[in-house]
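Encode chain A's predicted structure.
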Amino acid sequence: KAVVSTQSTGIEQSSGIKELHTEKFTLRCFQTITGVKFFVIVDQKQTGCEHLLLRIYELYTDYVLKNPFYPIDMPIRCELFDQNLRKVIEQVERATAYNSATLS
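Encoded structure for chain A:
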């Protein structure tokens, strides 16, 4: 399963974790030019994390940043973003389940 969270660093060009592998999961991070970080935590067998992070960033720009009522540096509270994020994660989970079934 993919889990997503965001956090604003407020630090220009801040560095930090990009990828972390453990025996049970992989954590990947994508940092935007404005310092917002998106994290996904996935099973070791999960592929396409970079594509997932880029897709999440697209949703963020489409539904959050283009919203004139969204206060920058605040938690994301946008129903359209949440709905579309759920759809993207479901697509990834279905694709993973399909790939696992075909490899078995």
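The beta strands are 3-8, 19-21, 25-31, 36-43.
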